[in-house]
Structures are given as C-alpha cells and as structure tokens.
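Hey,
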Amino acid sequence: MSSAADAIRAHAARATPGTVLTGLIGAGIGPSLSPPLHEAEADRLGLELVYARFDLDEHDIQGVAVGPLLAEAREAGYRGLNITHPCKQVVLQHLDELSPDAAALAAVNTVVFEGDRAVGHNTDWSGFTRGLRTGLPGVDLGAVVVLGAGGAGAAVAHGLLTAGAGRVEVFDLDAGRAAELAGALAGRFGAGRASAGTDLEAAIGAADGLVHATPTGMAAHPGLPLPAGLLRPDLWVAEVVYRPLETELVRTARALGARVLDGGRMAVFQAAEAFALFTGARPDAGRMLRHFTDLTRTPPLERQPADVLD
C-alpha cells in the first residue's frame, strides 16, 4: 500500500503548476491505453495533463486499498481518477456523492474531486451505448442477451434498456448476481424488460443480439464465453474486451457473417466522457477513436489484458 501511495505522491511532485493530475486504479492495468488516449487529447487541446497508472497487482495490494489511495490522491491535488476491476463496487463506500447513473448502477468508473468531496460517476454505460449506435447502427434491439452481471454487464444492460431494447436477459456464472441485476433493471425500466436467464441456448436462439461483458477472451483468459454453435449470421454480437481488439468471440462471429462490434468504441467513448469530467473541456471523440486505432495496431504477441470492465 505504501509503494502505491508513494507513486501517487511522486507523480504529483513531478507535475508542473497547473497540470491536471489524473490516473487509473485497478488490477492488471499495465498495458492500459487510457494514459496515451487522455494525454494525447489534452495535448491537442493545449492542456497540461498527466495520466498515471496505479496497478494493484504491481504493488501487491487488494481492491480494498482503493479508499486510502483515493484519499492520498485527493490530498496530493489530483483532479480525479478512473476506477476499474476489481474496485468499481468497492469504491462506493469511499465516496461523498454519486451521479444519478452511478447510483442506479451501483458501480463507479470515474471519480472527480470537487474541493473536499469525492464524486463518483459512471461513463461505461453511455460509452457502450454510443459505441453501439455508431458501430452497429440500426441493429434490432428487440431481445438482447447479456453475458456477465458484474460492473460491465450492469453498464451495458442499463445502456441497452436506455437505448430502447425491448427485453434484456442476463446470464452469469453466479446466478444470484444475475438475478439481482435483473431485478434492479426491472425496477428502473419496468416489469418484463429484464430477467435472469436459465437456458442460454434457448435465449440465444430467440435473441436479436448478444453482448459479452466478462473478461473471457483477454490474453489472460482466452477462449469463447459460450459454445460457438450458438452463434449464427443473423445474431449481432458486441464485445466489451478491447485488448486484444479481435477476441475469439469477435473473430468467430465475424467468420459466420454476423455483424460485430469490438470493444474499442466503448473504451474510447467512456474515456472521452471521463476526460470531460476531469478537465471541463470537450474532447474530440472522433480524434480519440482514430488515435485508439493507431495504438491498437500492434503485433499480436504484444497484446495484453488491460482495463477489465467487470
């Protein structure tokens, strides 16, 4: 814990006056693309901004350390921090206020320090929705299956229903977690709009689309999150994982002729909204997406997991 706190203070000490200090707290975030995305956009806008990674794994500490690290960052003069796996729910108890979306989702991916207050926001759901709208325009949202009921699953399910999805069916290895999420969604959006799934094959067979929101497919968790035989050409597929950008799910669905959305747009659009919260400036999301495309043109052996949204 002390080494992570030292790193937070060290970045602050090296910053020039007027620099916007930001960063990311999470596990396994070494290869995250958030730092270059934020810093390059700040440079284009004429802003001094530093975006640092504070990897829990690197410092051998657990997610519960997010509270002390937030306090350290606020004391050191940071403007805010992004929060990722496994801290998106744990961080709630260390915040003074939540935005309406963060409160509804009970998950936070962006914390902004406003004076002596720490305010939690969630830009994952809106980042996903914008990515879906621009990356898969016109897809049928009548019935959608969501795999994963963690922070990512909650965000995408909320985004789907906000965007007008008729029905969302949630699956998770933890059936209780899926039921809890479905109940919360039904409470917000109305009875019958969300349910916890029990028969994946039947649900996929009746669905118009599938959204995958677990770490499966990342370099550390290779493979498919469901049997390949359940996929079909008329089932659109959206992915949350973005490192690698072409997961086995994306590759398999595309080979079948299905319309596919990789995790890149969600990663970029949630980052653009977090950037606006940190700086008060409006970023050029299209420019950030082009920069992201350049950053992900790396040899497959260099691709590593980062920014787990679950």
